[in-house]
Design brief:
six-stranded mixed β-barrel; about 375 residues; globular; single chain
């Protein structure tokens, strides 16, 4: 059912479920060099107290981000509930966590779903494979009760990985996809669609606020928009197609030079991506304009020069969205400064980009399934 544009102006506080996401100082910087990180994570298993506020459906979970880049939230699966840390990912559609059948090294350091301990678990013989930019997983489809804060989806299809390749260094258990059903590799109904179809979500919309500078307070909200998280008005951008969170970008410029084609390009708004990704030749052009020097898999700049770096400007639906140097420069474990621009691994016929967390920290984002559009506004 179509719904009013007023969602951008009114906080549906009685209908919104918020899962706060918190960026914290990475332990990897202090522990990985001593080969202590995995031991610490196993010894201090993460458990959350649930906090609810009277008068609303606001649910807050304390979260941990060991990479200081990714934003993860907690969900539970099964009866009694088993807890997992997942990325809420608009770049994919499937929900999966490791299975206790998984023997890959990537599974050994993460929480695995114990299906025999869940009274509501229902198995199937259906298998699937998902290819991400970071790696590949193989698994089987199962059904069980999944909870996102106070949202509950019973008999929810989800994936149990039995083999994982390329995910050894990840600091999260699984992924919860929020893209359209057509993007599902397992060909099952995504959890957002199931909750929407069952009336558990009042409006077919969700939104992200990603905090800056390692501050707390990041949230993903379902069922409406809380206007306290952004400034000004939401600018709505129609999707290129009504089956994917990809929008048209008019142009991309830096130092008054056009980076992208003057005819425009496509960009996926991807909460599961840490960086800004683009075609290799265009990303190389950006690195040269910045003066970044390649070293290994990254491009570095002098940290003292960050304040003088030019902004990269994405013009979307006639509105400029600048990303200044301080936003696209990150620091590695040794305190050296590198750029957040990366070549897009998956090649397409068009000049396709990915607007990841570097962009989304600056701009509050609303994903409107009811009207097939994305809303953007400067984040608070």
């Amino acid at each position: 059912m179509k719904w009013l544009v007023l969602l951008g102006l009114v906080a549906f506080s009685e209908c919104i479920v918020k899962i706060p996401l918190r960026r914290v100082k990475t332990m990897r910087k202090t522990l990985s060099g001593k080969n202590m990180l995995n031991d610490v994570l196993r010894e201090h298993a993460y458990r959350l107290p649930q906090i609810s506020f009277r008068g609303s459906n606001l649910t807050i979970h304390p979260l941990r981000n060991t990479r200081d880049i990714l934003y993860v939230g907690n969900i539970t699966i099964g009866t009694p509930p088993q807890e997992f840390q997942v990325i809420f990912d608009t770049g994919s559609s499937d929900l999966w966590v490791p299975s206790d059948y998984c023997n890959s090294s990537a599974c050994s350091t993460h929480v695995r779903f114990r299906h025999l301990q869940s009274s509501t678990f229902r198995p199937t013989n259906k298998t699937f494979r998902i290819i991400y930019g970071a790696g590949t997983i193989k698994g089987v489809v199962a059904y069980d009760t999944v909870r996102i804060g106070e949202l509950v989806s019973t008999d929810q299809p989800f994936g149990l990985s039995v083999a994982e390749y390329g995910f050894q260094s990840r600091r999260y258990d699984g992924i919860l996809g929020l893209n359209y059903p057509k993007q599902s590799w397992s060909r099952t109904i995504p959890i957002f669609d199931k909750l929407k179809n069952e009336g558990a979500i009042s409006e077919p919309v969700f939104a992200f606020y990603l905090s800056k500078d390692e501050q707390e307070g990041s949230v993903v909200m379902f069922g409406g928009v809380d206007h306290r998280y952004y400034k000004g008005e939401l600018n709505w951008v129609p999707l290129v197609k009504a089956d994917d969170w990809t929008i048209h970008v008019d142009r991309i410029t830096m130092k008054r030079e056009v980076i992208a084609s003057s005819d425009g390009c496509a960009a996926m708004v991807d909460t599961g991506a840490s960086h800004i990704q683009g075609p290799g030749r265009l990303v190389d052009k950006v690195q040269k304009l910045i003066g970044a020097k390649p070293r290994g898999s990254k491009h570095y700049v002098s940290c003292s020069a960050v304040s003088t770096l030019p902004s990269i400007i994405f013009t979307i639906n006639g509105i400029n969205y600048p990303v200044p140097g301080r936003a696209y420069i990150l620091k590695d474990s040794r305190g050296r400064c590198y750029t957040a621009f990366k070549e897009k691994r998956v090649r397409t016929s068009t000049e396709s980009w990915v607007l990841g967390d570097v962009f989304l920290r600056l701009y509050f984002s609303v994903f409107d399934r009811g009207n097939d559009r994305i809303g953007l506004a400067p984040a608070m």
